[in-house]
Fold this protein.
Amino acid sequence: MSNILEIKNLSVSFASDGIKERAIAVNGVDIDIPQGRTVGLVGESGCGKSVTSLAVMGLLADNGRVEGGEAMFGGQDLLKLPDRELRRIRGNRISMIFQEPMTSLNPVITAGKQVAEALRLHAGLDAAAAKARTIEIFEKVGIPEPERRFGCYPHQLSGGLRQRVMIGMAMVMKPDLLIADEPTTALDVSIEAQILRLMRDLQRESGTSILMITHNLGVVAELCDEVYVMYAGEVVERADVMTLFSQCAHPYTRGLMASLPRMTPKGRRLYNIQGTVPNLRAMPAGCRFSPRCEFARERCKTEKPPLVDVGNGHLCRCFEPRTTPIAWGGDGL
Amino acid sequence: MVKHIAKRVIVTIPVLLGMVLVIFFMLNVVPGDPVTVMMREHLKEDLIDRLRQSMHLDDPFFVRYFRYIWDALHGDLGVSWKLNRPVTGLIANAFPCTLKLAVASSVFSWIMGIPVGIISAVKKNSLVDHLSMGVSLFGVSMPIFWVALILQNMFKNVLPVSGIESWKSYILPTIVLGWSSAGRIARLTRSNLLEVLRNDYIRTARSKGLSPLRVITGHALKNALIPVVTVMAIQISSLLSGAAITESVFAIPGVGSLAVSAIKNRDMPLLQGTVIFTAVLIIAGNLVADALYSAIDPRIRVE
Ligand SMILES: Nc1ncnc2c1ncn2[C@@H]1O[C@H](COP(=O)(O)OP(=O)(O)O)[C@@H](O)[C@H]1O
Ligand SMILES: [Mg+2]
């Protein structure tokens, strides 16, 4: 199966005021997104998921810089493409949805216009045709009374409706790839379920590949075919979704699994990985997870483990990958 | 929307009345009786009393206040003690000069201030940015009379520097007045635009594939200029009420000069008239700013 996007060895750094050394936020990340599939990118907040996707889209903040790597899309390296050509891909062949539906839409422009804008830009439609197409897509993403909603300002819409507008905006050009950065994190659980169902339906219909960024393993289970787990700016595990949930091998992934709320014979329990994500400027030598890892050995603290295949394309960055199946409902990791 | 504005207009009525009361009171406790002002010295006591009576100066304060309001509502602001002509007519005669100067300097300040602010924001921390912000700060912080004198000296051989001869007479005062407004607008535009550009919706606009120029013109400017427009409305209303210093320095016979001469001559009706005229304009300017704000910002609009 061919890949729609291949990110190879991507590194991104940020400058900060008063400090000469740049902070490395993403360090040698490889991610392949197969045609028509949904790939999850998970990890705690701050581990570099958003930065990875923004770098691919050329949307890094002013102080950010791609240090190396490539992002092959349709035979072109997005990271080397001049801005002019990248703009023809953005919003057209690759589009994005962001976490905050409250702030991701322009407050002084009507919802309809913000969607129609993409149609006018990429499909060259005139105002009337773009409006008609926008109302169609509003209907498709489940916005009731689409004609009226076309003229609504974002503050007149609920969070769920705004995210539907964002999805409409992202899907209106039938992109080859949709990057969804925590699209449901800010929404209620019931709205989240609706939005996820909508994304799945749209994908089935249009064949769009999705990169689903989330820190919610429930969303991964719901939607994804394959999963990449990031920790401190690096990929630490990659597996198909079945393998991940049945026998993930990295202690970090196991910790994430264990911290899912679930029912056990002893009642409801929550596990937390000890400690926090390390500071970008104070990365531990050796394995970056070692200070928080309950299985860490001396070697882990000095030597950096490579990302190795532990079977059938299941990759894991650990000297001693776990091999026991995960005991769902039990106590063990 | 209309209702919202109507409500604001009604609210201003007591404000206006109270303001007139304060002005009326202050100018009435100031020593300096019109009769002594007009006749200077050497007047017989009984003549003074007769004159005072004919001018109703011995009536109780509130009677005079309400008479003043009543007359003002009929367009009568009294008669200038010094010039012996109706105040309304004097202001009406002086207003065209002030209007031209206000419009010219406002337009100048918008044309200079907004683009400079935008360019400075887009090219943040570049030489252009530092230079234009320096010039703006200079315009904002230098005393107007000082700038006026410097410009008069620099251009005295090329441009008229005193009185109104032709449209050229407006050039220097326009620059003097417009410069400080332009500086304020440029700095405000720049800081608002920089603030707006940090918003999530700007990233959304970029992710749509819009060019940097269209992101600015289509998505950032409207948000950034909302506060600027309201400042502009208030600014022009205060310019309309007469720029006393600039008009005096350039000897422009506008409302500002009128007010200055009223102060010099202790001409109470004229002073009262110009002060109230100014206050009404500023209140109107605030109303317009308010209406503009709700017209361009959909979040303010009352449903
Ligand atoms: N504009 C920026 N300037 C400096 N540091 C940044 C910037 N954007 C992100 N970072 C840093 O990069 C790291 C990864 O952030 P991000 O990709 O947003 O995490 P997440 O996985 O939660 O999406 C964080 O440590 C964050 O502080
Ligand atoms: Mg993020």
Chain B touches chain A through 21 residues (CB under 8 Å). Chain B has two domains: 2-73, 87-300. Chain B has 13 helices and no strands.
